[in-house]
Amino acid sequence: MKRRLGALLVDDERLARVELARLLQAHPAVEVLGEAGDVEEAAARADELRPDLVFLDVQMPGADGFQLVPRLPARCRVVFVTAYSEFAIRAFEVNALDYLMKPVHPDRLAETMARLLAGEPNAPPRSPLRRDDPLIFPSGESYHVLRVHQIACIKAARDHSEVTTADGKTTLVSRSLKDWEDALPAVHFLRVHRSTIVNVDHIEKIEPWFNSSFRIYLKRLAEPLEVSRRFATILRDRLV
What we know:
This protein is α/β, with parallel strands linked by helices. The chain is built from 6 helices and 15 strands. It folds into 2 domains: 5-116, Rossmann fold (3-Layer(aba) Sandwich), CATH 3.40.50; 138-238, CATH 2.40.50.1020. It has helices at 14-24, 39-49, 88-93, 106-116, 177-183, 229-238; strands at residues 5-10, 30-36, 53-56, 77-82, 98-101, 134-139, 142-147, 151-157, 160-165, 170-173, 189-193, 196-199, 203-209, 213-218, 225-227.
């Protein structure tokens, strides 16, 4: 019989831990080994129990959940469980398995369990960002917030990326194009070139170009974007 995966539940709210443990009863492949109410207790419990999986709240008294991640066993997977969607992008940066919003819906938890059991121990999370999730970008000495759906396109800029929003404004972000591709919802975002991702909701016109390729025009953006031959077939498959 296959070994059950041990889970540690970390949340400062006892009722939240009780409810998550109840939901996990529907998933016999996972066994709840223990609970913790803060990062220090969780680090000690993780050393003792050596869990395969940690369900982790973000905002707790003292240290936040992200500070626990480097103290967990190397093979341990992390699922963030929080009421705050703005931490999603940090979750995929630390290679979290998934990011669940409170209150956790049983169907959404089932998706997480399916991903866990799919045998991808080192894979980054698939599309942890959703269309309406907020993203926080530095702007001088302050920050500005935009929603995922407001991104028109993203271009590679060496080890950074240049994010262009629907109004034509650009922001340089210290995140690779591959990181964005892993995090953005694939139903809305499409890689069209080794250096470009576009939001298909913002495409206004597509025209044929050289060598059986295309050029894409985005709404309110003057310059077209080139679709490389490598990605032209993928784009054709998306066309009705």
